Amino acid sequence: MFGDRVKKERILRQMTQKELSELLGVSPSTVGMYEQNRRQPDSDTIIKLSEIFNVSTDYLLGRTDIKNPSDEISNAVEDDPELIEFWNELKEREDLQLLFKQTKNLSPKDIKQIIRIIKAIEDEEDMLDQ
């Protein structure tokens, strides 16, 4: 599972094993062994892979099919144009990265409620700044 996901993400980015190996600081054959599930990387390398591919470590390890926690939030608010627009602005903010990690055990309804609360707070702060 892990190797399949690494290979899939590498190919999606049109990256060679050599290019990925240079980013990771390992040999191309090591990347090949990861992709063939013949070798497991250490935790630091798994974290590097998740950063390179912009996916969660849980996704790489096969613990979830959601590539990135922000995708889960996007799915939860997709039926509300105002919230999806607000979420698209929010997900770029580093100060809210913790939010992504906290949503993995929440229902879409709960996620939507949290985004509404954050939007209300942001709207109120904007009004106070004027």
TrEMBL record:
Superkingdom of this protein's organism: Bacteria
InterPro entries: Cro/C1-type_HTH (IPR001387), Lambda_DNA-bd_dom_sf (IPR010982)
Name of the protein: Helix-turn-helix transcriptional regulator
Species per Swiss-Prot/TrEMBL record: Anaerosalibacter bizertensis
Keywords on record: DNA-binding
CDD domains linked: HTH_XRE
HTH cro/C1-type domain ranges (all copies): 6-60
Keyword rRNA-binding: no
GO molecular-function terms, A-Z: DNA binding
